[in-house]
Each structure stands twice: as C-alpha cells, then as structure tokens.
Automatic annotation (TrEMBL):
The lineage of its organism: Bacteria, Pseudomonadati, Pseudomonadota, Alphaproteobacteria, Caulobacterales. Residues 18-72 form the HTH cro/C1-type domain. It comes from Caulobacter zeae. It comes from the Bacteria. GO terms for molecular function: DNA binding. This is Transcriptional regulator.
Length: 114
C-alpha cells in the first residue's frame, strides 16, 4: 500500500497561522467558511495543512480576518535571514508589474471588494 506523503511544512505553517488569526478574532470555522465561500470542513483541512490554500483564497481570508496577507507568512525566513516575501520581491527574473504586485502584497496593500 502506498504511504501517505508528509504534509508540506509550509502548508502546516500557514494553516496554523490561519487558525491562530481566526481564533484571535473569535470567528468560527463556519463563519469564516461562509464569508469566503467554502465549507467549514475545508477550513479545517486548511488549518491542519491537509489541503493547500490557493493564493486567491488566502487573500480572501486575510480580508475576512482583517489581517495583512503577510500575517500568514510570519516566521518564515530564508537561510539569508530575510522573510520569504522579501526574497520573492528581490527575484531578478520578475517583471516590473509582478514586483509591484509582490511589494503591494508585502505591505498589505491589496484591493478590497466594493
């Protein structure tokens, strides 16, 4: 029988931070799920790191929890001591539009729904 792969550490890390921010805001899994158009079971899977959260859902959850997107990457550092998002922002191959988007995400400056 095939052995289950270990959950990626990044998915578990982001899920744990999602759970922490949700609990800090005293929002139930049901309420967060309803706000972002998911089931509470899916929120559970995200929080346990069983399922990977798409970038668009992560942005929606940041809005719903009123936290910057960078809140889900707290504590992630590279071998150079920089945070992960800073390293992405410094990628030479990224175009100017991509870099602007990354910088906006880093600063928590992303458009909100009208």
């Amino acid at each position: 029988m095939k052995e289950l792969a270990a959950k990626p550490a990044l998915d578990r890390h982001i899920g744990a931070l999602l759970r922490g921010h949700r609990r800090a805001k005293e929002i139930s899994q049901h309420d967060l799920a309803a706000t972002v158009g998911l089931t509470f079971q899916q929120i559970q899977k995200y929080e346990c790191g069983e399922n990977r959260i798409s970038a668009s859902k992560l942005v929606e959850m940041a809005r719903a929890l009123d936290v910057p997107i960078t809140a889900f990457f707290a504590g992630l550092e590279t071998a150079y001591g920089d945070d992960l998002l800073s390293r992405f922002c410094s990628i030479r191959s990224a175009g100017s539009r991509q870099k602007r988007t990354l910088h906006r995400l880093r600063e928590g400056d992303f458009p909100t729904k009208a």
